[in-house]
Amino acid sequence: MNNKEKRGKEIKNEDINNMNLRIKNVSKWKTMRYLDKVEENANKIRYEDSIIKTREWLKHLKFEKLANRSYVTKGKKL
């Protein structure tokens, strides 16, 4: 094998390694993107659950206040 063939083989190996690195990076990026999306969806669901619980709590609190309210008519409590 002469120097030209060796150099051509080295360049080809570098190209293959470079391409493998790019594929690896893209795969890693897609995996990270997918995991971010999963986490984002979990956060969204948790946020929506929190809003629902808060609404229910406020509704119950409002009914409690109405039930515990003492009405005063002409100086007499009912």
Fold and architecture overview:
This protein is mainly alpha-helical. The chain is built from 1 helix and 2 strands; from the N terminus they run H-E-E. A two-stranded antiparallel sheet has the order 1-2. A hairpin with a 2-residue loop joins strand 1 (72-73) and strand 2 (76-77). It is rod-shaped and about 105 Å long. The N and C termini lie far apart (109 Å). Keywords: Plasmid. It comes from Borrelia hermsii YBT. This is Putative cytosolic protein.
Q: Tally the helices: what do you get? A: 1
Give the C-alpha Rg.
Answer: 34 Å
Percentage beta strand: 5-15%
Query: Which consecutive residue ranges, at least 5 long each, have pLDDT under 50?
Result: none
Using the alpha-carbon principal axes, give the shape: rod-shaped
Mean pLDDT reading = 80
Summarize the structure.
The chain is mostly helical. 85% of the residues lie in helices and 5% in strands. The chain has a two-stranded antiparallel ribbon with strand order 1-2.
